[in-house]
């Protein structure tokens, strides 16, 4: 599950970077605050459920088509791996739905808290670095087309994809380590899934609190740099050069326009969905490491965290929609594949009966011919 931000009061879910569980965080809020928070929680449940349904079905179709119905190419390898990353993430979303619907009570145990939370960051790192690989691949294909034609292969693309998965696993592993479960301060019957950066329930010791703050900063900044700034700097650089080359060659531009638009749409969607999340994580870091942080920033986290997290969730179900609306080849394959499945499902008995009858007639005809020839 996603690492949603917030140690903010009353919003304590298993995506949170929350480490501070002091009584001072649980202040009284107005009825308007409670109603708004409840509305945001309901919105989160609806969005998570929608992302689960569309994500599992949509990415499942992409995996089916790119993995089994389309000719294996370098591009299909990239999009297959991107779909697998999104599918794995959305498959865990029912736990997020349950956790939010139960008032942020985690009933699935510590291991699933760790695994569920890690999957969101694993998906984020895998997705963004697959997009980096796609961008570099497009850059090489446009700038050095002869070299690309001689060296690009499905086998090499598969090896690069494996490297991306390993890198994503390494970068997301710390989130598995730091995730923990424990009773909520305001209600011991509610079990929270949260980040325990100090591996301790001691919030009074200055040394432990310093360690907690240091690790919180290190994790947030590392995630922001390696999960957003660095990969998107590479992506923007690649596409800047690509656009420059395409503008100089109309023929090349017309040949690359469709695939270029699809990839650009996928990258833009990823940026729009994940940028608010990373910005919110930085705001949260300021609030939870600065005792003088304003109440305005605290309210921004309380109300903004569920919105930005829901937006990031939706990214995992957006790509299949982009392929369908923008990719004619993919659209044709999906339509033909679904029609074939439906034809086989609805005409199976008729076909079997027809085939059996034909075989019997053919068999009798052959026997009769043999008998006549013997006579």
Automatic annotation (TrEMBL):
Topology of the protein relative to the lipid bilayer: Multi-pass membrane protein
Which residue ranges traverse the bilayer? 45-65, 77-101, 121-147, 159-178, 221-242, 262-280, 300-326
For whether the record's keyword set contains Transmembrane, the answer is yes
The G-protein coupled receptors family 1 profile domain sits at 58-323
| InterPro entries found in the cross-reference section | Formyl_rcpt-rel, GPCR_Rhodpsn, GPCR_Rhodpsn_7TM
Chief subcellular site? membrane
Highest taxon of the lineage: Eukaryota
For this UniProt record, give its keywords in alphabetical order, as a comma-separated list. Answer: Chemotaxis, Disulfide bond, G-protein coupled receptor, Membrane, Receptor, Transducer, Transmembrane, Transmembrane helix
Q: Listed GO molecular functions?
A: complement receptor activity; G protein-coupled receptor activity
Which Gene Ontology cellular-component terms appear in the entry?
plasma membrane
Entry's family note: Belongs to the G-protein coupled receptor 1 family. Belongs to the chemokine-like receptor (CMKLR) family.
What's the protein called, per UniProt? Answer: Chemerin-like receptor 1
């Amino acid at each position: 599950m996603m690492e949603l931000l917030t140690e903010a009061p009353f919003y304590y879910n298993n995506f949170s970077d929350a480490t501070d569980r002091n009584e001072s965080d649980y202040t009284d809020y107005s009825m308007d605050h409670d109603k708004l928070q409840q509305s945001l929680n309901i919105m989160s449940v609806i969005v998570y459920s929608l992302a689960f349904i569309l994500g599992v079905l949509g990415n499942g179709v992409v995996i089916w088509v790119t993995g089994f119905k389309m000719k294996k190419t370098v591009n299909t390898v990239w999009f297959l791996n991107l779909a697998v990353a999104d599918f794995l993430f959305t498959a865990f979303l029912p736990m997020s739905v349950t956790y939010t619907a139960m008032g942020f009570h985690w009933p699935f145990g510590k291991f699933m808290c760790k695994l569920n939370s890690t999957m969101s960051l694993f998906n984020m790192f895998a997705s963004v670095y697959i997009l980096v690989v796609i961008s570099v691949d497009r850059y090489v294909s446009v700038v050095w087309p002869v070299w690309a034609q001689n060296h690009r292969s499905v086998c090499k693309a598969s090896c690069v994809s494996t490297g991306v998965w390993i890198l994503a696993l390494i970068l997301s592993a710390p989130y598995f380590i730091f995730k923990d479960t424990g009773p909520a301060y305001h209600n011991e019957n509610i079990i929270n899934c949260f980040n325990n950066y100090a591996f301790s329930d001691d919030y009074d010791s200055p040394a432990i609190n310093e360690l907690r703050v240091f690790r919180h900063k290190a994790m947030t900044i590392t995630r922001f740099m390696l999960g957003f700034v660095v990969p998107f700097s590479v992506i923007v650089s690649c596409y800047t050069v690509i656009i420059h080359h395409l503008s100089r060659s109309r023929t090349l531009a017309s040949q690359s326009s469709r695939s270029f638009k699809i990839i650009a749409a996928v990258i833009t969607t990823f940026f729009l969905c994940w940028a608010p999340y990373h910005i919110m994580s930085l705001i949260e870091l300021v609030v939870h490491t600065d005792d003088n942080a304003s109440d305005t920033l605290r309210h921004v986290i309380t109300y903004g965290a569920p919105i930005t997290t829901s937006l990031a969730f939706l990214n995992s179900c957006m790509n299949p929609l982009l392929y369908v609306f923008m990719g004619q080849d993919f659209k044709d394959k999906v339509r033909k594949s679904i029609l074939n499945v439906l034809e086989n499902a609805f005409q199976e008995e008729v076909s079997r009966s027809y085939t059996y009858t034909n075989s019997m007639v053919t068999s009798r005809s052959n026997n009769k011919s043999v008998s006549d020839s013997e006579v």
